[in-house]
Design goal:
eight-stranded mixed β-sheet, four-stranded antiparallel β-sheet, alpha/beta, single chain, about 575 residues
Length: about 575
């Protein structure tokens, strides 16, 4: 997916001084503009837009309530628990985690003192505000300007330092829409060896996807999430089905059931076309939605997207996301307060019984040089959240269809160990398997200082990820990435949900406890490593594939018949 890497590092001395200064400032409600990462500059020439500005003020939630939701999410998703599948409704979750009435009143009073009532919308724990630029500048004591990245041609409107009154600061978790940058556009990996042409038929045959007949009346649906101007074209989807899907009902199975979020422009772009065509192509007959968020602020869009899923009655049970960042989140101005809001929202979705499925990244172990012989290894986020299922990528060995899978080498199957999230307490379901990886010493681990052995480890699973035949603006092109394996895995989960719902059971929900308890439903991948960047080029460090779970292919790839049997137990 758009799993980007690279970026310059500011000297650590500057960073320390900046951090110390910002700690003092934030207590007074001043939020300095984060430094622009390498490649981004202030634009002096572009005219400021006259269109309204939208920002979101998220309130601090009941911390005990959040901890309760996390405990619930783990229990409700554990097949060994007596509460398995008894998910909480969005309303119940909002009630348990609600900010105090005083906090809501403080924020509402502050906003309504400066803005008309129609500009302000309260949605559970947040205020979504649409106003003019001068109104926002007055409210936050700031000025806006355009920043641009000439090499990626991205232009974003952003605030300078901004200020919140002290009483508002105290009740605010984060403000989205003032600072924050998009992911860089994805570059297609150049192909070294010619991979097998992968189509829905190849996937269906190889993984044995059969035995579920979707019924139109089942309350079951799935969605792809797209960000930053990735559009799809419905006529490409129709043409893709005609070309590559042997049996389907034309006019229904080859149509998106619902478009959500920003309007789709019906231009076929690679990522969105790949996602929707392959999620639907392996799960024919399941209602599939296209969710689009275009704000050019990756963290802000994630916060909006997660909140919308939770607060939309009947939102899809499965969401496939091929976006993430294998690097320092400071490069997206995605600060810790924002990461916490997004991660707490993902925990709520787990408690709500949603399967959120993220691509694990295309930069292998995420090797990033810091200069002077120093380096870091970055797994992709949000794939590294303990509340999502992370999907790596494989290919056929010897480039022959049907041969055993190996880790991809057109690009590196993203994986590793999070520095932000630990296995304790929220990813205990993988602890034993990750420990086994270290007990079977692979021939060449990166230096132990380069990764956090007890961090949430990714990926969880993997599937084929090279040579996908995608219909884009009427022409077929081959595409690879964990962004190919991810929608396929999501479509497989959609089929498992269909079978469970038809059998009177709840949806699969947050999958990871189930996955690690049912590893015999996956084919263990035994070949390769992920010491590759997107290119492909070899990186100095990566992780080897081993017997059992490993940080390149997870527990392995789907055996549909066994997954279905385990899901219906």
């Amino acid at each position: 997916g758009i799993n980007a890497e690279y970026g310059g590092a500011t000297p650590s001395t500057m960073r320390v001084v900046f951090l110390l200064a910002s700690v003092a400032l934030v207590s007074a409600g001043i939020h300095p503009r984060p430094p622009l990462p390498s490649g981004w500059v202030d634009s002096e020439v572009l005219a400021l837009p006259t269109s309204p500005l939208k920002f979101t003020l998220v309130l601090r939630e009941n911390q005990q309530g959040i901890e309760q939701i996390k405990r619930d999410a783990l229990e409700l998703s554990d097949p060994r628990s007596g509460r398995y599948g008894q998910y909480l409704s969005g309303d119940e979750i909002n009630k348990i985690t609600a900010p105090t009435p005083e906090a809501v009143a403080i924020a509402a009073d502050w906003l309504s003192a400066s803005l008309p009532a129609e500009s302000i919308q309260q949605l559970s724990n947040r205020f979504v505000v649409t106003c003019s630029l001068p109104q926002a500048e007055a409210l936050f004591a700031t000025s806006f300007g355009l920043v641009q990245n000439p090499s990626t041609r991205q232009v974003v409107l952003r605030a300078g330092d901004y200020q919140l009154p002290e009483e508002v600061e105290v009740v605010t978790a984060a403000v989205f829409g003032l600072h924050g940058l998009p992911l860089p556009p994805r570059r297609q990996a150049t192909v070294s060896a010619q991979p097998v042409d992968v189509t829905p038929s190849v996937l269906t045959k190889f993984y044995g996807i059969a035995g579920v007949t979707p019924q139109s009346g089942t309350a079951n649906s799935q969605a792809v999430a797209e960000f930053q101007g990735q559009y799809m074209n419905s006529s490409d989807l129709t043409a893709f089905f005609k070309e590559f899907v042997p049996t389907y009902h034309a006019g229904t199975d080859d149509k998106v059931s619902k478009f959500v979020g920003d309007p789709d422009k019906q231009i076929g772009q690679t990522e969105a076309s790949l996602d929707i065509q392959y999620m639907m192509g392996v799960s024919v007959g399941i209602k599939s939605e296209f969710w689009l968020y275009n704000n050019m602020d990756f963290c802000g869009d994630l916060a909006n997207w997660t909140s919308t899923i939770l607060n939309t009655k009947g939102s899809p049970q499965v969401h496939s996301v091929s976006y993430g960042w294998q690097g320092d989140l400071a490069q997206l101005q995605c600060t810790n307060d924002k990461v916490t809001v997004v991660d707490d929202a993902l925990a709520k979705l787990a408690a709500n019984g949603k399967s959120i499925i993220f691509a694990s990244g295309d930069s292998g172990a995420g090797y990033t040089s810091q200069g002077a012989g120093e380096f870091k290894l970055y797994p992709s986020w949000p794939a590294s959240s303990p509340w999502v299922t992370s999907v790596g990528a494989t290919r056929f060995s010897d480039q022959i269809e049907g041969h055993p899978e190996m880790a991809t080498d057109q690009f590196g199957s993203g994986g590793g160990f999070s520095a932000m999230f630990q296995q304790e307490p929220n990813a205990k379901w993988q602890e034993q398997d990750v420990a086994n990886y270290f007990n079977l010493p692979p021939p060449k681990l990166p230096p132990s200082t380069a990764f956090n052995k007890t961090g949430r480890a990714t990926p969880d699973v993997s599937a084929l990820g090279e040579g996908y035949q995608v219909m884009q603006n009427g022409a077929v092109m081959a595409v690879g990435g964990t962004s190919a394996s991810t929608p396929v895995f999501a479509g497989i989960v959609g089929l498992l949900n269909e079978a469970r719902i038809q059998a009177g059971k709840p949806a699969m929900g947050f999958l990871n406890p189930w996955i690690y308890q049912n590893q015999d439903a996956f084919t263990d991948v035994l070949l390769g490593d992920n010491a590759y960047g997107r290119g492909p080029f070899r990186t100095p460090y990566g992780y080897n594939v081993t017997k059992g779970w490993d940080p390149a292919t997870g527990v392995g790839s789907p055996i549909f018949s066994k997954m279905l049997a385990a899901a219906l137990k």
